[in-house]
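Tip: read the tokens left to right.
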């Protein structure tokens, strides 16, 4: 919205700053951060008032969670979404379709998560939320709309193409691209959701991934960068950097209250929205495969659940002491902050590897 102030610029004044994506990204970051600090405590107080028992704790989870996390309110993802949406609308160019596509996915998945959290909280039962089938069905509808929208926005030479990192190749998926993109978005949403099990565990890797994808979006939206790096040019995606910066600012504002011991959980409201956003950015920028590297921590968390369930059904035995895998390490005696910080380190390393694919050709 503030971009339109450039109409008052003669090219050498303050208003000219709003032409620059990097300036507006900085503005989006600080706006979202201030939003988080301003509304974090009032929101937590409201959630505590409305949620008498807080987030229901899994009865089959780690024993320490029952005593240490009971009564903590959930739905803190509302704070992240409020900061993210407000800041993005304020600082991004609203005539760029990719901005609206990513916002659509984020808000829609956030609403699905909110409905799931609301059902659990009102019934005080961790298993009384939306059914897995219903969540997946709604998620695929949202992802289908986003995938079709992204395909429409992509340049003709990139439509239905899967970009292969490192070799700078393209694979024509044809009619399979949209189903593939839907899986990427829904898979990312649910992978982040599975990771959200310890204080601060999901939000920092989500911010790291968003920052990395924001850099990629900025690069693929500039002809000079794409020519130098040998990657595909996707005009308009540079504005996604502003969304990514807002996500990081809102995420830091939330982390202030979510740091151990958490005063609030993001809940499915936040985790589904953040995961969906990461998937949508990857589809928009044609970096779906790179997302699997940058978000490798989320992939491992999701795979640990798939492996655990599949192996148990086949043999009656378990591969991990508990899934997702962060609970496995809890069972092995690792302290919660130890797991969280080590997973953050792993996430940062994977993000750097993912970013390296831009240059390794």
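Filled-in amino acids:
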């Amino acid at each position: 919205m503030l971009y339109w102030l450039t109409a008052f610029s003669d090219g050498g004044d303050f208003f000219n700053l709003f032409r620059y994506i990097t300036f507006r990204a900085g503005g989006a970051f600080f706006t979202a951060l201030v939003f988080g600090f301003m509304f974090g405590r009032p929101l937590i107080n409201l959630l505590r008032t409305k949620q008498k028992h807080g987030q229901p704790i899994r009865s089959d989870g780690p024993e320490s969670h029952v005593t240490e996390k009971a009564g903590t309110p959930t739905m803190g993802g509302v704070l992240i979404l409020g900061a993210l949406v407000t800041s993005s609308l304020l600082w991004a160019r609203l005539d760029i379709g990719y901005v609206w596509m990513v916002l659509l996915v984020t808000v829609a998945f956030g609403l699905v998560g909110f409905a799931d959290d609301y059902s659990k909280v009102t019934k005080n039962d961790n298993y009384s939320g939306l059914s897995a089938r219903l969540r997946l069905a709604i998620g695929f509808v949202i992802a289908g709309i986003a995938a079709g929208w992204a395909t429409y926005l992509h340049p003709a030479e990139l439509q239905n193409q899967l970009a292969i990192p490192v070799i700078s190749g393209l694979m024509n998926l044809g009619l399979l691209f949209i189903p593939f993109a839907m899986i990427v978005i829904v898979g990312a949403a649910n992978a982040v959701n599975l990771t959200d099990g310890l204080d601060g565990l999901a939000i920092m890797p989500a911010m790291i991934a968003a920052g990395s994808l924001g850099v990629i979006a900025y690069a693929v939206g500039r002809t000079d960068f794409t020519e130098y790096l040998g990657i595909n040019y996707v005009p308009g995606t540079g504005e996604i950097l502003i969304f990514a910066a807002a996500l990081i600012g809102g995420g830091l504002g939330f982390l202030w209250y979510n740091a151990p011991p958490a005063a609030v959980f993001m809940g499915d409201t936040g985790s589904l929205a953040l995961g969906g956003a990461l998937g949508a950015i990857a589809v928009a920028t044609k970096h779906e495969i790179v997302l699997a590297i940058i978000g490798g921590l989320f992939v491992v968390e999701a795979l640990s659940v798939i492996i655990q369930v599949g192996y148990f059904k086949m043999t009656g035995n378990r591969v991990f002491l508990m899934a997702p895998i962060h609970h496995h390490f809890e069972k092995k005696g690792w302290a919660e902050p130890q797991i969280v910080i080590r997973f953050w380190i792993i996430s940062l390393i994977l993000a750097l590897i993912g970013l390296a694919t831009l240059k390794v050709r």
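The mean pLDDT is 93. The chain is about 65% helix and 0% strand.
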